[in-house]
Amino acid sequence: MDFAYIVCVFMSAALFLPDCFGQDGNTVESEAVGFAIKIIPESESLSLNHKSNIVITCQSSVTDSSDQKPLLHWEINDTKITATGRPERITVESMADDQLRLRIENIQNGDEGIYRCVGTLGVRTDSRSIRIEVYESISISSDEVQVGIFGQTGQISCVAKASPWPLKVFKFANLTKIVNSEKYTIEEDQLVVRNLTFDDARDYLCDVTVVTRGENYPFTIKYQVVKIPVIEEDIIIDPINPKVGDDVTLTCKADGVPEPTYQFKKGGINLTDADSQQSGVLTITNLKQDDEGTIECEVSNQGGSNKRDIFLDVKVPPTIRSMPNVTEAVEGEQKQVTCFAEGDPAPTITWQKEGQAVYSNEDEDTDDDPELTDEPGDDQGVDGKKSSGKTMNFASIRPDHAGTYICTVVSYAGSASKTVVLEVKYKPHFETGYTETKFYGWKSHTSNLTCLASANEIATIQWYKTSDADVLGTSIQTREPYSLISPQEWPAHYLSSRSLMVTVNEDDSDVYGDYQCEAANSLGSSRR
């Protein structure tokens, strides 16, 4: 059996496939192709900031004239990266036959490691690696302006993050380091300041450093000391007893540092305008009944807030309910005249007759004047108004009860009055002040007998000649020796009059004697 010996001489194992020699000394050329891998940027390691982005390019180059290209892929910690697009943050992107990009977006802690680009062509493999380290720059989440409350313990916050973990030093603005003492205590993320005064309101420096990188962040904190506002006095209402239609002010005063702002509310509804927010004085114009209610004053500043409320009691001037201007009554009957009023507060009611107060005689055994009684309020009082009434009770109406009455209602919210005319219907009477009942006559003389009567309705008057035998008498007509004068009337005074003229002749002895006048209306008649 013949044997052929092949001797392979390996040269540049990284770039060339071996040349193989047969027994006869000729070179046997392999089908494998030489290539090399390069990573851009060309660095053994990269230190990348947290949340930054990076693109690393893997590029292959073939070392001979072959048109074949190696297959490229990226791997991290020996695990192949296959994602090619979002939402993945770590992806690969083919740019050409000989380029494959590694893209890392929004770099996070945990993304650090060894990233390797591997190329394969036939039986040949080549790779390059790059180490990625992730660090986090200094960031501070505390506020630049912070607030503490006067007299209390304050905390000046400085919450800093970085990787590696940073070192923090609290200082005054002049760079003097603050150390633990009775006044100050330094904790992990804050400086504690006890028994705050207004002198503690200043700038403080939180000096943050990552020593291994030399990164430094001097964070200035403007610290303010405030006094929580306190409403020391009750809210003042002016006028003290406001009524419907008034302009009223509510003054709320508070002590605080800085000066507090004010907010007025009623039933959760904000009543505050730009002026009252700064001054603490709320003005309500043309006050209405539905403005009544609890008004809340809230004062606030950066330190906190306080509240106080007051009840706004809107008074309603009294009014008199509708009642007739004229009311009629008949002599002898019972009559009630009531004046009902409403307001807030409930008004006091009085009656007057022609300027003189009407008093109740309920404690006296007399019926000269009406009896006054108070009437309780009823359910017609609305919008917070309170109603009441006062009644004049006439047990038996007389003519002298007629006249003009005035109902007056008074409260500290105002007053009102109503005039009522009581008109009494009565039969005629002769209590008029005219008292002549005896007349004289002589020969050839004419006597004037006058009858004056009071009545409502106005009375008609008739004359009679009476005797012992005829007490009713005979109606007199106009004929000798009598003459009846036309009646006269004064309706405004409920008076009527009629005169009888009697002429005495020589033989007229019959004209002497008794005469009667009769006054009559629909209610009755009277004689005199």
Key features?
6 domains, 528 residues, disulfide bond, 53% strand, Ig_I-set, Immunoglobulin-like, 6-stranded mixed beta sheet, rod-shaped
What count of helical segments does DSSP give? Answer: 1
- Percent strand: over 45%
CATH topology of the largest domain: Immunoglobulin-like
Which architecture of the largest domain would the CATH scheme give at its second level? Sandwich
Domain tally: 6
Shape: rod-shaped
**The first-level CATH class name of the largest domain:** Mainly Beta
The total count of strands amounts to 45
The averaged pLDDT comes out at 87
Terminal Cα separation, in Å?
190 Å
Oligomer: single chain
- CATH-defined superfamily of the largest domain: Immunoglobulins
- As a percent range, the share of helical residues equals under 10%
pLDDT < 50 stretches: 1-31
Radius of gyration: 60 Å
- Main β-sheet: number of strands, strand sense, barrel status? 9 strands, mixed
Helix-and-strand structural type: mainly beta
Please sum up the structure shown:
With 528 residues, the chain is an all-beta fold. The chain has six domains: 1-29, no CATH class; 35-135, Immunoglobulin-like (Sandwich); 141-227, Immunoglobulin-like (Sandwich); 240-312, Immunoglobulin-like, CATH 2.60.40; 317-426, Sandwich (Immunoglobulin-like), CATH 2.60.40; 430-527, Immunoglobulins (Immunoglobulin-like). The protein is built from one helix and 45 strands.
SSE layout and pairing:
Elements: E1 7-9, E2 19-21, E3 27-28, E4 35-40, E5 45-49, E6 54-62, E7 71-76, E8 79-80, E9 90-96, E10 99-104, E11 113-121, E12 124-140, E13 145-149, E14 154-157, E15 160-163, E16 167-172, E17 184-186, E18 190-193, E19 203-210, E20 215-231, E21 236-238, E22 248-251, E23 254-257, E24 261-266, E25 269-270, H1 274-279, E26 281-284, E27 293-301, E28 304-312, E29 316-320, E30 326-330, E31 335-344, E32 348-353, E33 356-357, E34 371-375, E35 386-394, E36 403-411, E37 414-429, E38 446-456, E39 460-466, E40 474-475, E41 482-484, E42 488-490, E43 495-503, E44 514-521, E45 524-527
Parallel strand pairs: 5-12, 13-20, 30-37
Antiparallel strand pairs: 1-2, 2-3, 4-6, 6-10, 7-8, 7-11, 9-10, 11-12, 12-15, 14-18, 16-19, 17-18, 19-20, 20-23, 21-22, 22-26, 24-25, 24-27, 27-28, 29-31, 31-35, 32-33, 32-36, 34-35, 36-37, 37-38, 38-43, 39-40, 39-44, 41-43, 42-43, 44-45
